[in-house]
Structure formats: C-alpha cells, structure tokens
Specification:
By secondary structure, the protein is mainly beta. The chain folds into three domains: about 240 residues, Ribonuclease Inhibitor (Leucine-rich repeat, LRR (right-handed beta-alpha superhelix)); about 60 residues, no CATH class; about 35 residues, no CATH class. It has two helices and 27 strands. The strands form eight sheets. Strands 1-2-3-5-7-9-10-12 form an eight-stranded parallel sheet, with no helix packed on it. Strands 22-23-27-26 form a four-stranded mixed sheet, with no helix packed on it. A three-stranded parallel sheet has the order 4-6-8, with no helix packed on it. The chain is elongated, with a radius of gyration of 34 Å.
Length: about 400
C-alpha cells in the first residue's frame, strides 16, 4: 500500500524489481533512470496513476517491462526508444493516451508489444515496420482509438505473427501487404475500424471487415455491397464524400458522370475559376447499351472508337469515353453547347472576322478591291476559332 518511494532509483545494482499484485498507488518516480542494471520490472495489478516519466527510457539493460491493469495516463515518452535491450513491453488495461512515439521503431530486440485496452489516438507509426524481432503487436481496443491508415510498412516486420488492431478508429484503404496469403500462419484481426468503401474482395472475405458507405450509395443489402461505392468510380472518404477517379471527377458528387474538359477562366474580380466545356455548355454522358467489348478490350476500342458510338453522336462530337468490358458498357462524355457560336467538341467560341482579297490588274500597275459573293470557312485557332468570310475573285 502507498506509493513507490523516491529513493528506489538509488538501488543502482538491483537486477529485478517485482511489485505486482499489491495496492501500490501514486505515480512512478522520476528517479527510475538510476536503475542502470535493472532487467525485469513488474508493476501489474496495482493502482498506479500519472504519466510514464521520461526516465523510464534510461534503463539500458531492461528486458521486461510490465505495468498491466493500472491507471497510467498520458502518452508514452519518446525516450522509450532508448531501451535497446528490451524484449517485452506490456501496458494493457491502463489509460494511456495520445499517439505512439515513432521511436518504437528503434527497438530492434523487442518481441512483444501490448498496449491494448487504453485510450490511444493518432497515427499508427510506420516505423514499427523496422522492428526486426517483433513477433506480437497488440494494439486492439483503444478508445477513441488510433485513427490513421494502417501503414503498409508493417508488412516489413519479418517476424510478426500476431497483429491485433481491432476496435480502433483506423481508416482508409486496407494495405496491400495483408493480401496474398499474409494471414496464413498468423493471427490477424483488423475488424471494427472505419475503412473506406469499396473494399477489395480479398480484404472483405479474408478479414471479415466492413467499410463506410457514402450517403448517395445504395443501402447495404449484403456483403457484396461493400465491394462497390461511388458509382464504381471512386472511394468514400469517412463515409461522407466520394473521392472520384480523375476521369469521373468534378461533375457529380457520386462519381456517376464522366468528366468533360476543364479549363481555367478569370472572372471579373480576377479570380481563377475552373469551368467545363469552355464555360459555354453542359457536360452530358451517353451510353451504348448494346456495346460488346471487342478483342483487345479498351485498346480495341481506342483503335477505332467511332465503331462503338451510340446512336446520334458524331465521331467528332465526344470529348472522352470510358470502356467497361465487365459490364459491356461504353460511356461517352460530350459538351452540349448553348448556341451556334459555340462548337463541338468542347464548345469553343467562334467569331467572325471580315477580310478583303486584293486583286491586281493584268498589267500589274493598278489594284482594286472586288466585292464578291461570300463563302463560309471554319478555321480553329488554339483557344479562339475564327470564321473567315473571303471575297472571291471576278
């Protein structure tokens, strides 16, 4: 009963300090750094509170640190990365908070790290992938929880055979290192996190996870609904909005519309705005519902796209197309221009410029302007196209 005395740090020759299963309360003294020969430090099942002092990283020979089931709070100090000989750190069932220190990646001899059932937040350090001896990583059941992507670098930890990250607030896409049979011979649990829809099929069925759908997505009816989101052309960020693929971005919030060309225009206040169809028309999509994907797939269409146009679209009228051979669908984006002065495919503005032909007389001494019947000729000039009215010769 009572706190650990301040003078414990002066026991510089002690090898083991086992204080588990007592009624010890108070805080950890900042003199712990004086225990330069301590190898085993056990504090399980007490009532210790307060933070882990910076001095806890100054025990160079420590191999086993365990303080399970206490009331320790605050974040782990960066100095913990100086425990160069440590093989085991067990701190589950406390009140530890904040992000994990990146210095954990320096613990090359650490085999067991358990900080489950705490209140950790922030990013899961990618530096953990450098821990060449790590066999068990247990960070499950943290509230509100670690809230970053699962770093793909975790797959670089060669000895890791137990990976428990369940019941946090981890988000984003499931990292590719977990594919390809990674779970075989390992214990892996990544459930109860906030992954972005859609999931890869291997992630859904191997790890029994779900994901966050966007508001415009259809209601979830079965597991396969987690494989599609944002009209099949994007991912749903935090269950709130669709991040569309480039070709489908900017025209519909649910990624259902293939994009038309975007140009930059300056408004009357000098602000640069992004507009589509040169600001002179609407972007529309047409689908070929009787499309059959040719040999070579999308490459086969690219060789001669006019062969696959839906009815009513001239081959010079569309500005982009998308081929989906699995669905036997081809989508064309085109600009529906607002008037005859704006022309396909991107609603470029045409103006009229009058010119005169100078005709020399046969003797070369006189010249005159000859008015003639007019013939319209279209000439495209970069962003400005010119309609020339030429006077023909007599």
């Amino acid at each position: 009963m009572g706190p650990i005395p301040h003078g414990v740090g002066y026991l510089d020759s002690i090898r083991e300090l086992k204080l588990h299963d007592n009624l010890i309360d108070g805080t950890l003294p900042d003199t712990l750094g004086g225990l330069s020969y301590l190898r085993h430090f056990s504090l399980d099942n007490n009532a210790l509170s307060g933070t882990c002092p910076h001095a806890i990283g100054h025990m160079p020979r420590l191999k086993h640190l365990s303080a399970v089931n206490n009331k320790l709070s605050g974040s782990l100090p960066e100095s913990i990365g100086s425990l160069g000989d440590v093989a085991e750190i067990r701190l589950m069932h406390n009140r530890l908070q904040g992000p994990l220190p990146t210095s954990l990646g320096d613990l090359s001899l650490l085999e067991h790290l358990d900080i489950s059932n705490n209140h950790l937040t922030g990013a899961l350090p990618s530096e953990i992938g450098r821990m060449s001896s790590l066999r068990e990583l247990r960070l499950n059941d943290n509230v509100p929880g670690l809230d970053s992507f699962i770093p793909n670098q975790l797959g670089d930890a060669p000895a890791l055979n137990t990976l428990l990250l369940a019941s946090n607030s981890l988000r984003g896409i499931v990292p590719p290192f977990l594919d390809g049979g990674y779970h075989v011979g390992r214990t892996v649990d990544i459930t109860q996190n906030l992954y972005y829809c859609p999931l890869e099929a291997w992630a859904l069925y191997t790890y029994s996870i779900t994901c966050e759908h966007c508001p415009d997505d259809p209601p979830v009816q079965n597991q396969s609904d987690y494989l599609v989101s944002c009209s099949g052309h994007g991912i749903c960020i935090d269950g709130e909005y669709c991040q569309c693929e480039d070709a489908w971005s900017g025209f519909s919030t649910d990624c259902s519309m293939l994009a038309c060309p975007i140009t930059e225009e300056e408004d009357e206040d000098g602000n640069i705005l992004e507009v589509f169809c040169s600001g002179n028309g609407a972007c529309v999509n047409d689908r070929n519902d009787s499309f059959t994907c040719p040999a070579g797939g999308a490459a086969g269409v690219a060789a001669n796209p006019s062969d696959f146009l839906p009815g009513g679209i001239d081959e010079d009228d569309f500005v982009a197309y998308h081929v989906d051979c699995e669905e036997n669908e081809i989508v064309y984006a085109r600009c529906d221009c607002i008037g005859p002065r704006y022309v396909a495919p991107d609603c470029t503005f045409f103006v009229v410029q009058e010119t005169e032909d100078i005709i020399l007389s046969s003797d070369g001494r006189n010249s005159r302007v000859v008015p003639c019947p007019t013939v319209a000729v279209l000439s495209a000039v970069t962003s400005l196209s010119v309609l020339l009215w030429r006077r023909s010769t007599i």
